[in-house]
Model the fold of this input.
Amino acid sequence: MPNRLADAASPYLRSHADNPVDWWQWGAEPFAEAARRDVPVLVSIGYSTCHWCHVMARESFSDPATAEFMNKNLVAIKVDREEHAEVDSTYLTAAGVFTSNLGWPLNVFVTPEGKAFFAGTYWPPHPLQGHPSFRQVLDAVLDAWRERRTEVEANGSAIAEALAQPRLTEGPLPADLHPIVATLAGHEDIPFGGFGTAPKFPVAPVLRFLLDRGSVGDEDARALATRALDAMAASALRDPIDGGFFRYATMRDWTEPHYERMLYDNAQLLAAYAIAGRVHIATGIAEFLLATLQLPTGGFASAQDSESVIDGRRVEGFYYSLDAESRARVDPPALDAKVLTGWNGLAIEALAIAGTLLDRPDWISAATRAAEFLLEHHVLPGGLVRASIDGVVSSARATLEDHGMLAVGLLQLATSTGEVRFAIAARELVDASLSAGGSPFGVPGGADPVLAAQGLAIEADPSDGAHPSGRSAMAAAAHRLYLLTAHAPYREAAIAGMSRVAALAAQQPISLGAALSVMAALAEPVRQVVVVGESPLARHWYRSGGISTVVSPDQAAAFAAQGFELYAGRASGPGTSTAYVCEEFVCRLPVTTERELATLLQ
Done:
């Protein structure tokens, strides 16, 4: 039996390389093999730090008898959801037809044409509390395939047709965001902080939206966000030793967390705690990112595992139960060292924001290292790379979120460092998306080729549940480019992108926090601050819908020469700093003292 996973770019796939299951990687070949054999396909989706994925791997995929049965009766594809995000999103949507208990591992049975006809998540090796065993599920699926093929194929086709229907409609952006803040307040868990009951997630995009509203004077929004942030910081969701946050808690009071630590969560929470002025918590997160997740290359690993290997057994949470001295004597949980472009963009943005607001140039330097790695190894002439590990580049197609998140991160880094090269690279990413065709943003290079060939390339999920969607990230990047360039089509693109989710955001604000942040910025008068020289006040100024940048005279000239209109004509005398405060690119008379700048900013 060939081993098709040993050289995968995904540590998750590599962890399954020694299974007796005859796994295939995602591609056209396994579907062709299933058609040749006339058998169904199992698309099994998970990720490296997923606890229940490891459990099912140990119980079922490592079992020789189960593997022999699978190999004889179907074609099995193993997918890393972080590597192939579009594949995961498509099949997660399809799985919603069969179960409301969505999550990972996600196991979807499909026809050789890729059409889903049954799905579920974790199945135990033996029947348990009303849940069938995995073998019982396999028997039922194969019985349906052999005895009711017409029904199976009809159901698969109906689901595929439903997925192909447009899910978004045009609508006006909200003129008043107070009702949305009130709706979010209605979801607050008042005794324990945060939103909802159990399981409990940080919903970082919502917290960022509320902080953005707080930056323009909405005290209700600010208070709602800070209550959640303070509750999480004081809870078991945060590791008080290493400083990072776990992915979620299984209990309403933030206890009994699942212990994986994700780059996207910690990046977004770093920005949130910095904006909220929680210096100690922000510092802990930044130290976790730099000490644990940043790789020698400068890029950031996607996650740290929830499990430790103890006496040959994988034990969830063991490492995090130890004090600092005891941790030093054991190996920490493994990293998923896969470098994801989009998530690294979130880390670059967060470190640049926090480094600027909290006077930590070392954090900005770390963001710069990551950006330089990505620009050299992930931004290639043939297009953007989705993921890489140890120099091995994934075949997965870069998504809209990769382009948008990296563009946002590079723009924030450009304004934090004064280096125009980062803004130029961001503009190229946004321009490529606008040229790709979409509503208004498209994916350069197109959709996943296998899904496209099967007619399953559906409209991207617009939700911002755990992190910004591609649409929200690209709209945020386009709006920031407008603030720097005065190029109206960028603002128009941001408005058009958000108009497709405006109605949904008003109905389900807990799921569209990043989109609401963009809408909030678009609703505010444009305020811009440019200081040529130095200004702590300008570096610490944060306002939704605005932008603040501190540059040298040479840097201002470089930005202006590259078409960033905000910097045109900005100069300063020798040995002095000159501040320009502008609204919609119309600037007041420049001032040269921090006191005068403070007066203008009021």
Q: What stands out?
A: Residues 527-601 form one domain. The radius of gyration is 25 Å.
